[in-house]
Design a protein that fits this description.
The complex is a heterodimer of chains A (about 375) and B (about 80).
Chain A (H helix, E strand, L loop, with lengths): L5 H5 L16 E7 L9 E5 L2 E7 L5 E5 L13 E3 L2 E3 L6 E2 L5 E3 L14 E2 L1 E4 L2 E6 L27 E7 L4 H5 L4 H6 L5 E9 L2 E9 L15 E11 L3 E10 L2 E15 L2 E10 L7 H28 L15 H8 L11 H4 L2 E4 L3 H22 L1
Antiparallel strand pairs in A: 1-11, 2-3, 3-4, 4-9, 5-6, 6-7, 7-8, 10-11, 12-18, 13-14, 13-19, 14-15, 15-16, 16-17, 17-18
Chain B lengths: L7 H4 L3 E4 L6 E5 L6 E4 L2 H6 L12 H13 L7
Antiparallel strand pairs in B: 1-2, 2-3
The chains are: A alpha+beta (about 375), B alpha+beta (about 80).
The structure holds FE2/S2 (inorganic) cluster (FES) and fe (ii) ion (FE2).
The site of FE2/S2 (inorganic) cluster (FES) has 10 residues of chain A, from loops.
Chain lengths: ~375, ~80
Amino acid sequence: MIHVTAAESDAVRAIEAEAISSRFARGWHCLGPAGTFKDGKPHTVNAFGQKLVVFTGEDGKTNVLDGYCRHMGGDLSQGTVKGNEIACPFHDWRWGGDGRCKKIPYSRRVPLRARTAAWPTMEQDRLLFVWNDPEGSKPPADVTIPVIEGASRDDWTDWRWTETVVHTNCREVIDNVVDMAHFFYIHNSFPTYFKNVFEGHVATQIMKGKSRPDARREGGGEGPRMLGNSSVASYHGPSFMIDELTYHYEGFDLRSVLINSHYPIDQNSFSLHSGIIVQHSDELPPEAAEATAEKLSSFILAGFEQDIEIWRNKTRIDNPLLCEEDGPVYQLRRWYEQFYVDVADIRPEMTDRFEFEIDTTRPVESWQKEVEENLARREGASA
Amino acid sequence: MTARQDERLLDGPLLPVRCRRCAAEVLVRKASWEQTSIQWNAAARASCVSLGDDPSGTCPALRSAIQEAALTGALRVAG
Ligand code: FES
Ligand SMILES: [Fe+2]
């Protein structure tokens, strides 16, 4: 029963937003396709409020170190890879992937304290991951990124990868996990089923949708008709989402895996990545699959642009006002907070399983009407 | 960060429902017949036997227990 006093219902609702924490999430973060960093050159990556240097030694191992040399502060990412070490451009001190200074060519001895910050790295499915941990602990064995089956199989396409810098705090992209309605209003999708499950370090969104005839672009009429899609998308930790996304066409299904990942640059910006692979099939031989992956990739990028345009203009809000047809924003943020506190301070409710299924009856009714009105208007205009 | 509550819970709280197959007790809220929130705790999660293969599914036994609670009125359905 709703007991709202007159004073309460008349009061203007205030938007609240606390200062953004200066801490960056604990967890595996993907820096992009591993191949990018294997060109024998050092790469500058701005992440976790710092400048990092990423380089691959002759041994093939990719390393991530703090970008600034402990000697006199030189920028290691402007240096040179020599053997398995990164050589500083300023005085040629050589730093190993473990963060230790291995050699100073002009000195007999390396000082005792010559150690810099090194980030644990992992290569999987041809992607490079870096482990961030404000407490400095090693990545636990049970907090992994699952292997993506299609990423190493011949009957799937290669990764199509995109990167975009977004100028807002990365909580905005996480909120998308529970935001069913924005898929209709921003992304031209039509959700018909929507459920979330949060448990441990995994947050999942299960969504089914049908295609929007009113959103189909002019001239896009050839080829098989798309009926809808089913998607199971999970964040494994704070930043890496794997979306098993199946498009249903008249007569066949197209299977794809979509990656939506990011790493924070600082409190007010992040690097947003998308990756996609598509499975070959009888209906979709290798060449057609590559073309489809290309098309989907630009489609996803366009979707990011739609989000970015909203984020560019919206305000941060800690107390969103929700209707019953909205998803569990508060419970998602409660889950997300586990990555921003010390491991010892993780409370059970942050990781306990929580399920939330939206009643889509009313949204579907209302969106169906809107689609029909759009179509009627379009017909009226072209008649 | 201050922990904030989903204010929708003020309009209808989470209520306990017990699964009849495994005796797990979870907290449930239904804003309508088709909407369901299920809050597990560690003890309930450990006792559920049906969540194995599909981690994003809902335990079928628990689902029917919730349905029954809603039908008998033990679980109030808002809306
Ligand atoms: S500052 Fe790097 S070698 Fe001197
Ligand atoms: Fe979005």
